[in-house]
Amino acid sequence: MADLIRYSSFKRTDETAAKANQLREELVKASYPAPDLDTTERLLGTDGGAVCEKPGNALKKALHRIQQLSTGAPGPGNRPVIADTRAVQAERIVLTVYCPGKVDDFDEAVEDLKTDDTIRRRP
Which of 41, 83, 85, 91 sits 20 to 30 Å CA-CA off 107? Predict the structure, then answer.
């Protein structure tokens, strides 16, 4: 049985540019680095792509996978990973721009995550 590969085309529009610019402004206002506009347009399009499909699920899945790799120890030697507060906030900003109706779903999905300042940042 042959594997199927699906290609999707990207069409730059005024709406993709406007949303990418809005996201960039919101992230910079919140003290995040400015993302590349071309990449943002391609990645998120007009509807937020995968980020808006199931808010919070991807973040929780990624954290679970990191946890499995964090200590390399099975069982009691394995330690849970604490999510970085700023990473969770950044995803929330993306949702407010691309799919504001899903912000509540995201908040609910991540409400049980323990967050803290876990990433060292340069002064």
Answer: 41
Parallel/antiparallel/unpaired status of strands 83-84 and 115-116: parallel
Please calculate the CA angle 87-58-64 and round it to the nearest 5 degrees.
85
pTM score of the predicted model: 0.72
pLDDT the model gives residue 1:
43
Q: Tokens representing 32?
A: 């995040």
pLDDT for the residue numbered 7: 44
CA 81/CA 119 separation, integer angstroms: 12
d(CA 81, CA 42): 31
- The separation between the first and the last C-alpha atoms of the chain, rounded to the nearest angstrom, is 54
**How far apart, in whole angstroms, are the C-alpha atoms of residue 12 and residue 19?**
11
CA distance 81 to 112: 13
Give the separation between CA 109 and CA 82, rounded to whole angstroms: 15
